[in-house]
Every structure is written in structure tokens, then in C-alpha cells.
Design goal:
The complex is a heterodimer. Chain A is 77% helix and 0% strand. Chain A has one domain: MetI-like fold, CATH 1.10.3720.10. In chain A, helix 3 crosses helix 8. Chain A contains twelve helices and no strands. The two termini of chain A are 30 Å apart. Helix content of chain B is 72%, strand content 0%. By secondary structure, chain B is mainly alpha-helical. The longest helix of chain B is centred in the first third of the chain and has 32 residues. In chain B, helix 3 crosses helix 14, helix 6 packs antiparallel against helix 9 and helix 13 runs antiparallel to helix 14. Chain B is built from 15 helices and no strands. Classes of the chains: A mainly alpha, B mainly alpha. At the A-B interface, helix 1, helix 3, helix 4, helix 5 and helix 6 of A face helix 3, helix 5, helix 6, helix 7 and helix 8 of B.
């Protein structure tokens, strides 16, 4: 009995490892391409290795550096603005009765295609001479991020015990102190998740930037797109691999913030179970 | 201020503003950008605004009805989105059930797949599946094909194999991650109870596990469908030049020199939005509002809202 379970367990582990490997294939190929300059058809592995692609992209004044910087700027601004309006909105969504259609309305910009909206906005942005500016890109990036943040914060505030605030007020804290010393620390983990996702939405965004940036706002996805048209696989691979890094770092940061170590069940589930 | 208060309706209004006012900046910004853009698009699509303005006309929509390519593109987009959603949900759920006993690292690993930009995945797929991609090389080394001409066309192909494979690669882990999170939040008490009362494993799954997971899975399905249906860059780069999916068709018409095509593109954009909005609200938009964003990707978001206390 025990032996059979052990065999079953190892088979399961083998299967999971197989799935994980299959899933990692595109990344494996990118990683190989990133460290070679020429790799011709029948060779399953490159004959010569090289870090020329990395050197070219990471050198001073390269397009990659510019794109990385602009992506970072845009994503950070978008995240800050989304936090600023999303936290108050989330408080209402989470603590007051809000009609269902309002929630649905907030979901629409996240789920439906922004193409029509973009075509509508473009004319106005051109008239305001805002097209092809960072400001315009940040503005359109707010379309999916604000609703997302509001909904995430809504769920955070739905589980937030307002008794803590009342307690602090009773003990003589003024509203600012309550906000800084009670509310904010309590909602910080949820806000961190919201911020990570807002950052990632903006960081990964292609279509919105493509339409509004007019080819002049160069974010990483734009750079990758133009490299894909070009056909230099080494550069494509290096940029692709480097584009994933901040996302993973942000995710790691959020996990650490939440104290969610690998293999440990989330604390809340444990509490719910007991 | 005082006169407002004195009229009786004032306090209610003021209280309303105090209570719901914090919503205003968010609603205002989204309303201005999204709602405003949508209104302008509507106006453009009926010829009331923008380039090619010529007074109210439904010509843009009328021409679309007569255009065979439009119907084909719409069906193609719907087919890809439905197929990808269905397969991702079924395979993701299967994967989650397999991984259920494995431990927290499975969730953690699944989370790694979330922040990968689409273009990165597309680049990987092109280098993997392309005519001289790594799989073709492997097949050649193994002696399955004699030259790169023999490798099946899996990218930029009319069958949309590459696009579909990409979506499965991207969305199965997502669906599995959600299902795993839901399974964890659910616990196994109810299932054990069912087993103790004599239900078979299949019965337990069908009558206990699946109904408990359904709202969450539904929300996930809505998200995946909405995403795949309106995706632009993936079919643009991995799909063929013909037939085109609806978003790609819209883009090409919008950037066309012919202004009438532009008007058609805007009209098409509104149709695209209407179709996805209809599907979203059709399949229980309420569930999506409650479930999906409360606790989709992160295990820590924890308890399922429909779980009994």
C-alpha cells in the first residue's frame, strides 16, 4: 500500500516536471538565442556562444536603456495615480452598498477591447497636441488600471474591520493619524498586490501605447515589437528575457510583503480552516 | 450651504456625497477617458465627428453588413476565443486537481507565469514553432523531416495553430492557478463528507467539487474569453495575413488611407466591444465582479466569498 502510494507520488512528480519543462520550452529557446550570434537551421544547439547581444543592448545610450526607462516611468506614474484614486474608490466599493451595474461598469474597461475607445480618443489627443507624449500614454494606461485597483481595494476594504479606526478615534487620534497609523498599515498588503498588478498591466501594455504613442513613445513592448519585425533573433531574445525581470521582481516583492513563503499555506486560509 | 441643508433634501445629498464622494475621482477619470472615448467613437461611426464628417449616416454599419470579410473575422475571433477558453478551463482544472496535494510551491510557480508580457511569449513561440524554429531542428535531428520545408506551418498559418498554442501556453497555467486557489479556499471537508456518505470519486467531483468551483471558474472563463477575443498583438504577430481576426482587421482598416474604411473601422470597434460586453454580462457578470478580482491570482486573497461561514 505504502509502496504503491510512493510510486504514484513519484509518477505525479514526474508528470508535473514534464508539464513544467514543456511550459518552459519557449523560454529555453529564448535563453539559447540570447547567448549566441548565429545559429543556423539544422543545429539543435548553437555552435558558438556570445554575449554580444547583451553588450550591445546594455551599453550606454542604447535604445534598450531608453525604452526601459520610459516603460518604468510610465508604469510607476500609472501605478501611483491608480493607487491615489483607487484606494478611496475601493473604500466605498468595499464598505457601502453599491449597485451591481456599477461594478459591472468598472469591469468593462478591463475585459472588453479598448480599440473603439482608442479610435475615439485619438482625434481629441491630436487636437490637444497630446498624442505621442508620455502624458497621453499614462492617461490611457489608467483606463484598465484604475478599475482594477478599485476592485482589488474594494475586496480589501470588504474584509477591513472599521472597529480599529473607531478605536483609534476613541483614544484621541485625529483622522490623519488614524489614516497613517491604523488604516494604511492594515490595507498595505492588499494595496501592494493592487500596485504590483497595476504596474504589470502598464509594463506589459502594447495596444494602448501602440495607438497613442504614435511610434514616438518607446516602451519595452514597442521595442520588442520593432525588433520582431527586424529578425535579429539574438536581440529579440535578450530584450524578451529582460522584459520579464521587473515583473518577476515585483511579484517577488509582493510575496515577500505578504510574508507568503514558498510552501506555506496562506495564513488566512489556515485561520479559516481552524 | 445652510440654505441647502434647510431644504430637507440637502442632508441626504450631502451625506451621499460624503459616503460616495470618494468614488468620484476614479469614476470621473474612467468615465472621461473610457466613456468619453466611447462616445466619440460612436459619433465617428455614424459620421457625426472626426475625419470624413458628413452628417448622420449609418453607412459605416451598412457597409459592414455587406462585407463578407467582417462576418468571417467575427466568427474566427469567436471560434478562437471559445476554443482557447474551453480548453484552458478543462486542462487547467485537470492540472489543478493533479497538483492539489503537491503543496504551495505549485501556486508560487503558477504565479511566475502571470507577469510574462504577451510579446515575450510570442517571441518565444516564433523561435520555437517557426519553420526553422527549435522544434523543426529537433525533428530534423531525430530524422523525422528531411528539410525545414517538411515541418508543418505552425506560425502565421491559416489554421491559427500557433495562436491557439500560444493561448493554451498562456492561459492553462492561469486557469490552473485560479482553480488551485479555489480548491485551497474550499478545503476538503465537504468532499470527505460526501465520500463518507458513500459517493464515488467521480460523483464527489461532479456533485460536490465542481459546483463549488463553478462561480470562480465561470469568472475565469469570462476573463480568458474577453482577453483572447479582443487580443491584438498575438494574432497580429502569430496569425496569418488572411483570414484576420476582428481586432487585426479593425486596426488595418483604421490605418487605411481611405477615410470610409476608417469610419467602418470605428463601427467595427464598437461591434467588437458590444459583442464582448454582451458575452461578459451574459455569463453572470455579477459573479465576475464578486469572484474574479477578489481572489484570482493570489492564494493570500484566500477565502471564497460564497463559502458558508
Amino acid at each position: 500500500m505504502k509502496g504503491r502510494r510512493w510510486i504514484g507520488g513519484s509518477l505525479l512528480r514526474l508528470g508535473v516536471a514534464g508539464v513544467a519543462l514543456l511550459w518552459a520550452l519557449p523560454f529555453g529557446v529564448l535563453a539559447l538565442w540570447a547567448f549566441t550570434r548565429a545559429w543556423y537551421f539544422p543545429d539543435a544547439l548553437p555552435r558558438a556562444w556570445s554575449i554580444a547581444g547583451w553588450q550591445q543592448l546594455l551599453s550606454w545610450g542604447s535604445q534598450f536603456r531608453a525604452a526601459f526607462g520610459q516603460s518604468l516611468q510610465i508604469a510607476l506614474f500609472t501605478t501611483l495615480l491608480a493607487l491615489g484614486v483607487g484606494i478611496p474608490a475601493g473604500r466605498v466599493l468595499g464598505t457601502r452598498p453599491v449597485p451591481a451595474w456599477l461594478r459591472l461598469l468598472l469591469l468593462l474597461p478591463i475585459i472588453t477591447s479598448p480599440l473603439a475607445v482608442l479610435m475615439g480618443i485619438q482625434g481629441v489627443l491630436i487636437r490637444l497636441r497630446l498624442d505621442s507624449t508620455l502624458l497621453a500614454v499614462v492617461l490611457v494606461h489608467l483606463i484598465p488600471t484604475i478599475p482594477y485597483m478599485a476592485l482589488v481595494m474594494g475586496s480589501v476594504f470588504a474584509r477591513f474591520d472599521r472597529g480599529y479606526e473607531a478605536q483609534a478615534r476613541c483614544l484621541g487620534a485625529d483622522p490623519w493619524q488614524v489614516w497613517w497609523q491604523v488604516t494604511l498599515p492594515l490595507i498595505a498588503p492588499g494595496a501592494a498586490i493592487g500596485a504590483v498588478f497595476a504596474f504589470l498591466i502598464s509594463w506589459n501594455e502594447f495596444l494602448l501605447t501602440f495607438f497613442v504613442g504614435g511610434g514616438r513613445v518607446l516602451t519595452l513592448p514597442m521595442l520588442l515589437y520593432s525588433l520582431l519585425q527586424g529578425g535579429n533573433n539574438t536581440l529579440v531574445a535578450v530584450v524578451a528575457l529582460l522584459s520579464v525581470v521587473p515583473g518577476w521582481l515585483a511579484l517577488l516583492g509582493a510575496s515577500v510583503c505578504l510574508g507568503q513563503a514558498i510552501g506555506l499555506p496562506p495564513r488566512e486560509v489556515q485561520e479559516g480552516e481552524s | 450651504m445652510n440654505s441647502l441643508n434647510g431644504r430637507g433634501a440637502g442632508p441626504v445629498g450631502l451625506k451621499g456625497i460624503r459616503q460616495y464622494g470618494p468614488l468620484l475621482p476614479a469614476l470621473g477619470l474612467v468615465g472621461l477617458l473610457y466613456g468619453g472615448g466611447l462616445l466619440l467613437a460612436l459619433a465617428q461611426s455614424v459620421g457625426l465627428y472626426g475625419l470624413g464628417e458628413r452628417g448622420f449616416t449609418l453607412q459605416g454599419y451598412g457597409e459592414l453588413l455587406r462585407d463578407a470579410e467582417v462576418g468571417g473575422s467575427l466568427l474566427l475571433s469567436l471560434r478562437i476565443a471559445l476554443l482557447a477558453t474551453g480548453l484552458a478551463l478543462v486542462l487547467g482544472l485537470g492540472l489543478a486537481l493533479l497538483l492539489r496535494g503537491v503543496g504551495g510551491w505549485a501556486i508560487w510557480l503558477g504565479q511566475l507565469t502571470l507577469p510574462i508580457p504577451h510579446l515575450v511569449g510570442v517571441a518565444g513561440m516564433l523561435l520555437l514553432l517557426g519553420p526553422s524554429g527549435w522544434l523543426a531542428r529537433l525533428a530534423f535531428q531525430l530524422g523525422w523531416i528531411a528539410s525545414d520545408q517538411d515541418f508543418p506551418l505552425w506560425v502565421n498559418d491559416r489554421g491559427y495553430v500557433g495562436v491557439l498554442l500560444y493561448w493554451l501556453w498562456k492561459e492553462i497555467p492561469f486557469a490552473a492557478l485560479v482553480a488551485l486557489t479555489l480548491l485551497r479556499g474550499m478545503g476538503s471537508d465537504l468532499e470527505q463528507q460526501a465520500r463518507l456518505l458513500g459517493a464515488s470519486a467521480a460523483q464527489t467531483f461532479w456533485y460536490v467539487t465542481l459546483p463549488l468551483l463553478r462561480p470562480g471558474l465561470l469568472a475565469t472563463g469570462i476573463l480568458i474569453f474577453g482577453f483572447v477575443f479582443s487580443a491584438f498583438e498575438v494574432p497580429l504577430l502569430l496569425g496569418p495575413t488572411y483570414p484576420r481576426t476582428l481586432p487585426v482587421l479593425i486596426y488595418q482598416r483604421f490605418t487605411h488611407i481611405n477615410l470610409e474604411q476608417r469610419q467602418q473601422a470605428v463601427a467595427l470597434g464598437i461591434i467588437l466591444l458590444a459583442v464582448s460586453a454582451a458575452v461578459v454580462s451574459l455569463i453572470g457578470g455579477l459573479f465576475a465582479a464578486r469572484v474574479s478580482f477578489l481572489q484570482l491570482p493570489f492564494g493570500s486573497a484566500g477565502r471564497s466569498p460564497w463559502r458558508k461561514p
